Amino acid sequence: MSNFEELSKAVIAGQEQKVKELTQLSINEGVDPLSIINDGLIQGMNVVGQRFKVGDMFVPEVLMSARAMSAGVAMVKPLLLDGQMTSKGTVVIGTVKGDLHDIGKNLVGMMLESSGYQVIDMGVDTASEEFIAAVKENKAQVLGLSALLTTTMLSMKDTIEALKEEGIRNDVKVLIGGAPISQTFADEIGADGFAPDAASATELVGRLIG
Ligand code: B1M
Question: pTM, whole model, 2 decimals?
Answer without folding.
Answer: 0.83
